[in-house]
């Protein structure tokens, strides 16, 4: 057990080893959701470009107000119109989003006014700058609004559109190769013979990689032989920026991934003090980053979420993307401790407590589908009912 690398040390080693593996391209902003920005975006205009009204009402000079005094309406300013300067002693009819006329310093919403003949009386003394959204309230010209390495969200699409931007420089999508290993595996759609199981890690990894915004360049399967494993890895090395595999990384004589990696490249780390997912292997194959995920489906999921996802994000140009956690109280207890950090698949009950799925086997995937996230229990830590532990929701991965 002492030869296992600590969870945080493994995370840091993998993050530190990674660098951007893709070049840039310019694409339409409308197609950029989920892509990684390659260059900082600096605003060249103010948003909003002018002081403008937050209400439908009247613009005036606050200090002109007197109880009962009526004001001539000297102009009408709908949004989109460039107004004349305010005539002294008058008010201007104004609408939400319309530019404040030069000279006016406040807007009174129409509900607080009274029309008298063709004039307007303001019920209360207005306050200077009330209901005025100042020029540059959202963004100032010269401000860096989005930094390189940011994954573009629909909110960024809106923000960049408010600057008039139609194209962005992004990193090309990372081409990810996926290798599954195991003689017992057949693809879904075929009939199972005794001893066989369906390959679930291949489709799951493809879905995880795609969900993260990368491109699955190739998905291969190798039998449990060194020759087949090496041939598949060589094929993926020819067409991919990063390679992930599942299975064949443990110690049995049917596990060939690690020994093949040693002939094709350099193994950096093997075996981490986590449960599930202990025998993860990290290597570089002629400059291509590689992570071998353990084959048990929940081990594949957990190690993808924590390690492969981080590696892929850095290689794709994204700033290292660590999942968010918050503290949640356990709805169960366990006195037995283990010497590995554990990622228990839990559901959050209506009482707000985290409940462990009863089936935590690394071979079982239902717990992840029926749960909402991981409770991270550090090595040698008992679980006490009502005590707080870090909870990582699946949606954060
Ligand atoms: N003597 C020891 N045996 C094992 C150890 C150990 O320390 N000493 N570690 C165990 C742990 S922990 C894990 S995790 C597994 C990891 O093994 P491998 O990565 O070598 O994976 P395989 O042996 O190839 O497969 C494990 C398990 O997962 C199933 N599997 C594999 N690939 C897929 C797939 N694509 N789709 C669905 N299921 C898959 C496979 O059939 C096995 O049941 O090693 C333990 N053993
Ligand atoms: O690491 Mo294994 O995933 O404990 O079964």
Explain the overall architecture.
The model has no long low-confidence stretch (mean pLDDT 97). The two termini are 28 Å apart. A six-stranded mixed β-sheet has the order 7-4-6-5-9-8, with no helix packed on it. Strands 16-13-17-21-20-18 form a six-stranded mixed β-sheet, with helices on both faces. Strand 20 and strand 21 (288-293) form a beta hairpin. The radius of gyration is 30 Å and the shape is elongated. The chain has four domains: 7-22 and 173-315, Molybdenum Cofactor Biosythetic Enzyme, Chain A; 24-46 and 141-169, Molybdopterin biosynthesis moea protein, domain 2; 52-133, Beta Complex (Molybdopterin biosynthesis moeA protein, domain 3), CATH 2.170.190.11; 326-396, Beta-clip. Helix content is 19%, strand content 29%. It is an alpha+beta fold and 397 residues long. Helix 1 runs parallel beside helix 6, helix 3 runs parallel beside helix 6 and helix 4 (226-239) crosses helix 5. The protein has helices at 7-17, 154-162, 201-211, 226-239, 257-264, 297-315, 366-370; strands spanning 24-28, 41-42, 52-53, 57-60, 70-77, 91-94, 106-109, 113-116, 119-122, 132-133, 144-146, 167-171, 175-181, 185-186, 197-198, 215-222, 242-246, 266-270, 274-275, 281-285, 288-293, 326-329, 341-348, 354-356, 373-377, 388-393. The site of molybdate ion has 8 residues, from loops.
